[in-house]
Amino acid sequence: MELTLAEKILARASGNDWVKPGDFVTARVDRMMINDMFVLVAKALQEAGVSELSDPGRAYVIFDHFVPPPSPKHAEMVRAALEQAREYRIPNIFPDAGVSHQVMCETGFIQPGELVLGTDSHSTMYGAFAAAGAGIGATEMAYLLATGELWLQVPHSVKIELTGSLPSGVFAKDLVLHIIGRLGGDYGRYKSVEYSGAGAAALGMSERMTIANMGVELGTKFALFEADGTTLDFLQQRGVENLSEFAADQKAEYEAIHAFCLGELSPQVARPHQPENVCDVGELSDVRIDQAYLGSCTNARLDDLEIAADIIRGHRVASHTRFLVAPASKRVLLEATKAGYIETLLEAGATILPPGCGACAGLHSGLLGKGEVCLSSTNRNFNGRMGSPEAEIYLASPATVTASAVTGSIVDSRML
Amino acid sequence: MPSKFTKRIQSITGRVWVFGDNIDTDAMAPGASLMLEWPERRDYMFPQHREFVDQMNPGDIIVAGQNFGCGSSREQAVHNLKSLGVALVVAESFSRIFFRNAIANALPAMQCPSLEPTWMNRDSGEFDWETSTLRNLTSGQNYDVQPYSEEMMEIMVAGGLIQKLKAQQSTDRL
Lengths: 416, 174
Prior knowledge:
The structure holds 2 protein chains of 2 kinds.
Chain A: H1 5-13, E1 24-28, E2 31-34, H2 38-47, E3 59-62, H3 72-87, E4 92-94, H4 100-107, E5 115-118, E6 132-135, H5 138-147, E7 149-153, E8 156-163, H6 172-183, E9 191-196, H7 198-201, H8 205-213, E10 222-225, H9 229-237, E11 256-261, E12 268-270, E13 278-280, E14 291-295, H10 302-312, E15 322-326, H11 330-338, H12 341-348, E16 351-352, E17 373-376, E18 392-395, H13 398-407
Parallel strand pairs in A: 2-3, 2-5, 3-4, 5-6, 8-9, 8-11, 9-10, 14-15, 14-17, 15-16, 17-18
Antiparallel strand pairs in A: 1-7, 12-13
Chain B: E1 12-18, H1 25-28, H2 50-55, E2 61-64, H3 76-84, E3 88-91, H4 96-104, E4 109-111, E5 124-128, E6 133-136, E7 142-144, H5 150-158, H6 161-173
Parallel strand pairs in B: 1-2, 2-3, 3-4
Antiparallel strand pairs in B: 1-5, 5-6, 6-7
């Protein structure tokens, strides 16, 4: 049987030689990621009378939503979650290392061919490493931690062929926004999307992470890249050795194949209030912004901060605009500091925030008031997501966000 | 299609509330409300559909368009609907994470690709598990609803995934 990436992963996870789309399987999950929702997971475990997890070593507890805590109640909740994680003997606990998916990826915890479920929808990001990643709720995670396995339905696989290379000033975020704009936010329902072709192979790991991260905005179950030399180098640098490349079979069958030529792209922006409401940045003139936000697991890695520093160097943030920068992890913040990017951003008038989810999900540190407009490097712009339901959120690449912070309105970074 | 499970679960009848496409989970459970208790969370729900929150009664049914429950995996979205008393959600399509969360919490969420936008608020709806049919009792229209798999029905009939896990734990101890 010739299998797609998703089929290979689910076949192995369920102990089968092969599976086909539509099949229901019971899959043994390789790693489980739980964020601050661990309090809800612990509650469900206690309700079910579970005192021991099936394999605590496979769980990773990473707080990112409510750290640093925005209220005493949240502080108490986070403390309770920490104690509960220790009681359940989970060895991998990261109380404030940064955004969960970023920590999982940058540390080398995600390996090709794995099935990794997390209590956050951007778990699709693990697909950058050819690992099938998907978000589940707290109750399902409790079941999974207790038993080590979960029922899953095998999705239909769709191939997205990428050719060419991104022009200067155009980035992975622009590509994924373009794809979501073209195919629709509901396109990937019950599907697994696989990125392939020379264009995909030429993308670096950070770029693959941005694209896979926003797989959920395409509605997809998994968003996968092949694991090639680039993947293995990245992991080797993080001490993960003895890995093999991992790709779909040559004659695997796909429900559909779409092609995108990277060389034809221009900077894209998602307008309020859907990630699929995408247009060329050139179509937006005179959209004044009150806040520019550079953060989240989607786009706040070292390369994103380098791009921001290069654009803003010698300029100042517009007087009516707040430019907030929340690096995706402490590791990114440290490296960006050593490289001088943080200093450059500060000199330009940016505000540096603690690594974490923060305002991306309307949790804290940069919420929007009534009538405010924010241009953000994050992944969702639903009505009310970042605060007031009477605010507006536009999504774009770090380059677009940074250039717009300088001019105070949405602008193509190549104009600066 | 009748199964050993459909006979063990009551049909659902209630007053209907109509929603459009792409109703996201941030709307059902905004970020600021995530760690609050019920009923405080109720005040934050559905900022764009407050009439629904204020006027709905336990036992009411939601009928919606495409991609219901899209976005974040937050389970509070399902908890909030259940706490409000929503008895059933029928949508043209669901986001997969929400669909799974609903099943795990025994909130019936049924897919009906042939649903038409002809429903009106306060229509009366009835869902029958055995025939997997949704009836608009006000207009007389019937719709075929995609039945749950055996795996999904087992969870629903148990009262949710935690109840299933509890039962498994007891069996394991025997």
